[in-house]
Amino acid sequence: MTDLAARLHHPLPVLTPATKTLGDIEGLRASGVRAGIKASGNPDVALLVADSLIDVAAVFTQNKFAAAPVLVCREHLQKTGGRARAIVVNSGNANACTGDEGLQNARIMCADVAELLGCSPDEVLVASTGVIGVQLPMEKVRAGIRAAFAELQSGPEAGRAFLAAIQTTDAYPKEACEPGDGWSVAGVCKGAGMIAPNMATMLAFVATDAPVDAGGLPALLRDVAVGSFNAVHVDSHPSTNDSLFLLATRRGTQEKAFSNALRDTCRRLAWLIARDGEGATKVTTIRVTGASSNEAAQAIGRRVAESALVRTALFGNDPNWGRFVSQVGNAKEVTSVAGLVCKVQGITVFENEAPTRFDRAEASKAMAAEDVLLELALTEGSGAGDILTSDLGYRYVEVNAEYTT
Amino acid sequence: MTDLAARLHHPLPVLTPATKTLGDIEGLRASGVRAGIKASGNPDVALLVADSLIDVAAVFTQNKFAAAPVLVCREHLQKTGGRARAIVVNSGNANACTGDEGLQNARIMCADVAELLGCSPDEVLVASTGVIGVQLPMEKVRAGIRAAFAELQSGPEAGRAFLAAIQTTDAYPKEACEPGDGWSVAGVCKGAGMIAPNMATMLAFVATDAPVDAGGLPALLRDVAVGSFNAVHVDSHPSTNDSLFLLATRRGTQEKAFSNALRDTCRRLAWLIARDGEGATKVTTIRVTGASSNEAAQAIGRRVAESALVRTALFGNDPNWGRFVSQVGNAKEVTSVAGLVCKVQGITVFENEAPTRFDRAEASKAMAAEDVLLELALTEGSGAGDILTSDLGYRYVEVNAEYTT
Predict the structure, then answer these.
(1) Which long-range contacts (CB under 8 A, 24 or more apart) does B2-5 make?
(2) Which residue in the set B8, B97, B400 is minimally distant from A355, CB to CB?
(3) B282 burial type by CB count under 10 A (0-12 exposed, 13-18 middle, 19+ buried)
(4) CB 3.0–4.6 Å: which of A31, A47, A107, A385 could bond A151 by disulfide?
């Protein structure tokens, strides 16, 4: 065995702060405060408020255990036709698996914000993240909401205060922005692996002051989510609370550049989540091409990413073509593996139904990178898709096995 | 961090040898020899020969990358209508991803045995296990076949020589038997996790001298496989070579007790494979009930077993109800999680949409066992099914990440 202790150390990525945050989006104010929900005393209530009723689209978890805030958001967005004044967020407690009391608590959070803003409770959205199966400490939450309201500000610091208050097990803050012509897209998110005791994982908030066609936002956001947040595979465990919100403060004729800026922002945020998988040392993009459809391509990539054997090989910088291609053969979306080509970091390791005579040491060295590309080319059609996955190392086991005992 | 080195140590199960082996089945002779295919010098060619043409049923991998021996067996069983004189096996090389040359080599193995026996090559079956993507060293294989033929014997030692020669990364020999009234079912298998460099995983050989209804064997074996070998989830990676053979040396009116003996034998062999997952400390039976169908129940159980989060929790003896139930919510075979009850070792940890007030320390202690039962009861129908899974600990990462680098 090599030095195991050394292998438990995983350097974090080197990040530069985003030039714009949610607080820089025209028409938005943000805040984050310490309400005492988290035992650590870290910030745990966040508020994002628009100056007027704005357009909001959202994508939520497909887990049948949808948390109370998700149920309330779906209801509110339905009632308002996709408009809102504010989003209130707490971390430290996911308000999931909390039954009717949890649903009432989510409604109270919206009503409290609505009262402060003088709007309808339906015009307030809510998100929670943290432990599941425990009721929210509502006195602390409600005091936190009042404090966050008093703190509302615009500008980069306000956006970062919001971001700080939505984090749970994140190893680093996750933010991204893309500039446009007189407008911006800015986003923040939280999410790493699901660490005991039962963290609900992913929340993302993206906002823009670009002129947008409000009617097209929900479909655009769903499409963008497919290639970003829904492409992240950390541990095949979509959570009860996963939510992605898009806030647009201005209506108008949508610029083509906006879709691209939104896509790039969401992809960057998704990368940051994959990179923060417990003990992850890199992000691997599993790119499947030549599938029968784009959906099939992503499903095949997900099948490959689900394999603990594949993910440990990625951790070990092992160009293990057998694990990669045999998992393609197990995907039910694949009807023929004839002609399959597999490349690792651009190096062809499998073609013509057999491994190539590639240089293992060279391929292994190429895999010791912050970004790894694993390409799997089928010959069934023109479907293509990416999945982003973290690797699986000792620290993953340590973090996930040794919580309670 | 606790003492990681100590946690890399995983005691193996305490096993008692089976009272009967393949060599004890009336009408069968077996052998195993060292042919030099394995660099280790361990036995690597095995032969199982019937005194006359007997009934054989088989279940093979569903991976689209089926290895050459699997393709040849399917063809031969088709031609003979499920009859054979012999099975020849090699370990050390899976003859998978080897193209036309590999197919020819599998045919040569059958032809060599046929010539020695004086039968048709179609009446010989073949299985291989070991590294993939490398051609068989045919001179060694053919010399090994001649040596194995010369060594054919009946009795327990012959059966164990066969078993020794089919093993690859197995930490212990895997055998099981069930006695009947004047007959027996005896079986052996090989299989653990898929260790680099690309081991093809599971081979099982079960034989009986019970009087059987030959026509019903294929359907019976498929059914038995569902509840045994197909219920094993070690790392969601069915291999190119997985094969299960059932040899029946006598025809007659099938006794009801035979099906049960076959089922028990296969279940025991499947348990032995799950227990030999790399670094596994236990076997967890994930029992899903109340699903819409038996197939749905197993699919849901498999979804739970696929989660690295679930398997690390099992390793850590962590009664992590959130991971268990949320993964049920992610299974596409589930339409409603209302009424879901989750029990760990008989202790109810989740019901009425919320965790119970169970004693975590007590539940954790109960999970520190060789056999763990995780029950997930839905209320959608009467479908039920078990999945057997190994847990995921440090040693799994060590074995799977640190092979080449």
Answers:
(1) B2/A402, B4/A4, B4/A5, B4/A8, B4/A394, B4/A398, B4/B394, B5/A4
(2) B97
(3) buried
(4) A31
Q: Which residues of A does the annotation mark as catalytic?
A: 201
**Cross-chain residue pair A322–B198, CB shorter than 8 Å:** yes
User: CB A394 to CB B393 under 8 A?
Assistant: no
- Residues on chain A touching B306 (C-beta within 8 angstroms): 236, 306
B/e letters for B105-141, b = 16+ CB within 10 Å, e = fewer, are bbbbbbebbbebbebbbbbbbbbbbbbbbbebbeebb
Sequence length of chain B is: 405
The shortest CB-CB distance from B393 to any of A65, A328, A397 is to A397
Task: Choose the final residue of a domain: A256, A275, A294.
Answer: A275
Whether B12 is covered by a domain: the verdict is no
Taking contacts as CB-CB distances below 8 angstroms, the residues of chain A near B193 are 309
Count of structural domains within chain B: 2
* B153 secondary structure, DSSP code: B
Amino acid identity at A91: S
Residue that is written with structure tokens 């040898």 in the block: B17
Contact B131, B153 (CB under 8 A): no
B residues 87-146 closer than 8 Å to A (CB): 97-99, 132-133
Q: What is the pLDDT of residues A241-294, one digit of tens each?
A: 899 999 999 998 888 899 999 999 999 999 998 888 877 889 999 999 999 999
B307 is a domain residue = yes
Alpha helices by DSSP H, listed for A287-350, are 294-306, 308-315, 321-330
Contacts of A3 (CB under 8 A, 6+ apart): none
Q: pLDDT for B365-387, tens place per residue?
A: 999 999 999 999 999 999 999 99
Set of chain B residues whose Cβ sits within 8 Å of the Cβ of A238: 330
Q: Say how many CB pairs under 8 Å bridge A and B.
A: 224
Q: What pLDDT is attached to residue A267?
A: 93
Chain B residues whose CB is inside 8 A of the A240 CB are: 326, 329
Domain boundary among A235, A251, A275: A275
pLDDT at A199 over 70: no
B312/A400 Cβ within 8 A: yes
Q: Considering only residues 237 to 266 of chain A, which have any Cβ-Cβ distance to chain B shorter than 8 Å?
A: 237-240
C-alpha closest to that of B242 among B327, B132, B152: B132
Asked if A313 is an interface residue toward chain B (Cβ–Cβ < 8 A), one would say yes
- The label of the residue with tokens 């010539």 reads B115
For residue A380, the chain B residues in CB contact (below 8 A) are: none
* Cβ contact A402–B194 (<8 Å): no
Domain range for A344 is 283-401
B164 and B42 in a common domain: yes
Q: Copy the structure tokens of residue B159.
A: 């059966």
**Of A119, A125, A106, whose CA–CA distance to A205 is shortest?**
A125
Please write the tens of the pLDDT for every residue from A120-139: 999 999 999 998 889 999 99
**Is A333 within a domain?**
yes
- Do residues A301 and A267 share a domain? no
Chain A, 1-60: which have a CB under 8 Å from a chain B CB? 1-2, 4-5, 8
Is residue A111 domain-resident? yes
Establish how many alpha carbons lie within 13 A of residue B66's alpha carbon, considering only the half-sphere containing its beta carbon.
Answer: 18
Q: Is the CB of B237 less than 8 angstroms away from the CB of A330?
A: yes
CATH code (residue A48): 3.60.70.12
Residue B169 sits at φ, ψ, to 5 deg, of -95, 10
Mean pLDDT of the residues in chain B: 91
